[in-house]
UniProtKB/TrEMBL annotation:
Protein name: Cytochrome P450
Organism: Rhodocollybia butyracea
Gene3D superfamilies assigned: Cytochrome P450
Stated family: Belongs to the cytochrome P450 family.
Keywords: Heme, Iron, Metal-binding, Monooxygenase, Oxidoreductase
C-alpha cells in the first residue's frame, strides 16, 4: 500500500515543493529537520504522545523558537516562545486566525463546521457572536449561582469517589449541560457517556499527524475494507457520536422553547432571538453548531485542569497547608467560599494559575492557518502553513518561570503575599491566541477557582490506603496517547473532612 500511495502523491508533493522553493529564494524557511526527497519531513513529524515535548526538543536542537517542517506539501511551523506567538497570532491576527482544513476530523467525522475548527469566515463569526451574547465576559456573575451549586454537589460526591477523574467529568459535564442547554442535574447524566466518547474521539482525530489522511487527502476515497483503511471505520463510528452529541440535547431545548418552558441557556436564548424573516433552518444549524462547540470546549478542558490541580495538591501537602491557613483566616467555621472571597484568597488564585501552568490543558494549541505569505525575523512563512503554538514551552520558560518543573504557586505572589501582576498569567496562553481565544475562558477560570477553593476549605487531600491501612505513595501519571488534550490518568485519593462543620455545611454525613 505504501508504494501505491507514493505513486499517487509524488506529482502533487513535487509541485508544491517546487512552489515553496521558488517563493523562498529571497528569504529562507525557518530551521528544521532536513527535508527528504518527495516525502520531505513526513517521517519527522511526531505522531506519538507528548508531541509538545518532541517539538520543544526539536526547537532546542535547531536553536530556534520558530521551526519549519513540511510533509507532502503541507507546511508546518512551530512557535516555541511567547514572543513569536504574540508577534504573529496576536499582532498579525488578520492573517493568522484561520484554521487548517482537516480531512479526518472535519470531513470524515463532520466536525468541520464547529466553531473551534471552522476557518475564519462568516459562519465562524456568527457562531462567536452567539457565544459572546450568551457568555459575555462583561457579566462574570451570570453563572456564579450555578457554579457554586454544582461545586457543592461535587463536594458531596468526592469523599465517596473511587475514581476522581470520572467524578470531575460528571461535575463539569452537568454544569456545562445546564449552561449550554438548560438541562439540569440528574436529567443531564444520560447524555454523558456519548459526550465523553465524542470528545475523546475529537481530541485524538484533531491531533496533527495522528492520521495520514490529513497529509494525503486522496486516502479518504479508499474503501473501508481496504488494507490499512481502519481510519475510515473509526471515522464512521466517531461521526455517529458527533451526530448524537449535536442533535439530542439541542432537540430537547428546542422543544422546550416552543412550549415556553425552557430554562435560560445559550441554546434557548439564541433560539428565542432568531430573526423570523431569515432562513430558520439555517439559523438553527448555526445555533446547533455553536452550542455543541461550547459544550465540548467547556467540559473536557475544565476536567483536565481541575484533575491536574487536585493531583498536584495530593503530591504537595505543603501547598495544601498554606492554602488551609489562608482559608481559615478568611472563612469562619463551616463557611464555604463564595466569589466575593476571591480578593482575600490570593494563594488559592495562585494555585489555580500554577495548575494551569504546570500541565496546560492543550500543550499544543489548536493549529492556526496562515492565509498569505509572510516574513518574520528574516524567515519566509508560506501561505497556508499550519501554525502550531507550543503552549507547554511558553509556560515552562525558565526566564519567566524559574524552576518550571516544580509545582510552586508562590511564584505568582509578591513579597507581601499578594498576586504579582509582573508574573505572566498562564491563562494568557492556555485559552488560545488572537481572534481564536476561547470566548468562555472566564467561565472556565471561575469554575476552577470556586472548585479548588471549596475543596480545600472542606477537605485535606490525602493518599489512598492499602488493605493494611498504610498510605499508598501517590503517583502522577498522564495520558500518553496522541491527543490535543493533556489530562491525568484515573487516580485515587481520600478527601478527609477538616472538621465536623463541613458535614453541617453540606448537609451530609461523612463518617
Amino acid at each position: 500500500m505504501n508504494s501505491a500511495l507514493a505513486l499517487l502523491v509524488v506529482p502533487i508533493a513535487y509541485t508544491l515543493y517546487k512552489r515553496h522553493l521558488e517563493n523562498a529564494r529571497q528569504y529562507p524557511l525557518p530551521p528544521g529537520p532536513k527535508k527528504l526527497p518527495i516525502v520531505e519531513n513526513l517521517f519527522h513529524v511526531p505522531r506519538g504522545g507528548y508531541l509538545w515535548l518532541d517539538y520543544a526538543e526539536m526547537c532546542r536542537r535547531y536553536e530556534s523558537n520558530i521551526i519549519h517542517l513540511s510533509a507532502l506539501g503541507n507546511s508546518i511551523i512551530i512557535l516555541n516562545s511567547a514572543k513569536a506567538v504574540s508577534d504573529l497570532l496576536d499582532k498579525r491576527s488578520s492573517i493568522y486566525s484561520s484554521r487548517p482544513a482537516t480531512v479526518m476530523l472535519g470531513e470524515l467525522m463532520g466536525w468541520g463546521a464547529a466553531f473551534i475548527f471552522r476557518p475564519n469566515d462568516e459562519f465562524w463569526k456568527a457562531q462567536r457572536k452567539i457565544m459572546n451574547q450568551a457568555m459575555p465576559p462583561t457579566d462574570p456573575k451570570r453563572f456564579h449561582a450555578q457554579q457554586i451549586s454544582s461545586t457543592h454537589d461535587l463536594l458531596r460526591v468526592l469523599p465517596h469517589s473511587d475514581d476522581v477523574m470520572k467524578s470531575l467529568q460528571t461535575w463539569a459535564a452537568v454544569f456545562i449541560m445546564d449552561v449550554t442547554y438548560g438541562i439540569q442535574g440528574e436529567e443531564a447524566k444520560p447524555y454523558l457517556p456519548t459526550v465523553m466518547a465524542a470528545l475523546e474521539s475529537m481530541s485524538v482525530a484533531g491531533t496533527p499527524g495522528a492520521f495520514y489522511v490529513d497529509q494525503i487527502p486522496i486516502l479518504k476515497y479508499v474503501p473501508e475494507w481496504f488494507l490499512g483503511a481502519d481510519f475510515k471505520r473509526k471515522a464512521r463510528e466517531w461521526a455517529k457520536l458527533r451526530v448524537e452529541m449535536t442533535e439530542s440535547a439541542f432537540n430537547v431545548t428546542k422543544e422546550r422553547v416552543a412550549k415556553g418552558i425552557a430554562t435560560p441557556s445559550l441554546t434557548s436564548v439564541a433560539l428565542e432571538q432568531m430573526d423570523p424573516n431569515q432562513d430558520i433552518a439555517q439559523q438553527e444549524e448555526l445555533i446547533k453548531t455553536a452550542s455543541v462547540t461550547a459544550y465540548g470546549g467547556g467540559s473536557d478542558t475544565t476536567v483536565a485542569a481541575l484533575g491536574a490541580g487536585i493531583l498536584a495538591l495530593l503530591m504537595h501537602p505543603e501547598v495544601q497547608a498554606k492554602a488551609h491557613a489562608e482559608l481559615d483566616k478568611v472563612l469562619g467555621p463551616g463557611d464555604l467560599p463564595t466569589f466575593s472571597d476571591e480578593p482575600s484568597l490570593p494563594y488559592i488564585s495562585a494555585i489555580v494559575k500554577e495548575a494551569l501552568r504546570e500541565n496546560p490543558i492543550t500543550p499544543l494549541a489548536f493549529p492556526h492557518q496562515l492565509t498569505q505569505d509572510d516574513i518574520y525575523e528574516g524567515y519566509f512563512l508560506p501561505k497556508d502553513s499550519i501554525i502550531m503554538p507550543n503552549v507547554w514551552s511558553i509556560l515552562h520558560n525558565e526566564e519567566e518561570y524559574p524552576e518550571p518543573h516544580l509545582f510552586n504557586p508562590s511564584r505568582f505572589l509578591d513579597a507581601d503575599g499578594k498576586l504579582n501582576p509582573d508574573i505572566k498569567d498562564p491563562a494568557s496562553a492556555v485559552f488560545g491566541f488572537g481572534r481564536r481565544i476561547c470566548p468562555g475562558r472566564h467561565i472556565a477560570l471561575a469554575s476552577l477557582w470556586i472548585a479548588i477553593a471549596s475543596i480545600l476549605a472542606c477537605y485535606t487531600i490525602e493518599p489512598d490506603l492499602d488493605e493494611d491501612g498504610n498510605p499508598i505513595p501517590p503517583k502522577a501519571e498522564w495520558y500518553s496517547g496522541p491527543t490535543l488534550f493533556n489530562h491525568p490518568l484515573a487516580f485515587k485519593c481520600r478527601f478527609v473532612p477538616r472538621s465536623k462543620d463541613v458535614e453541617a455545611s453540606l448537609g451530609i454525613s461523612l463518617s
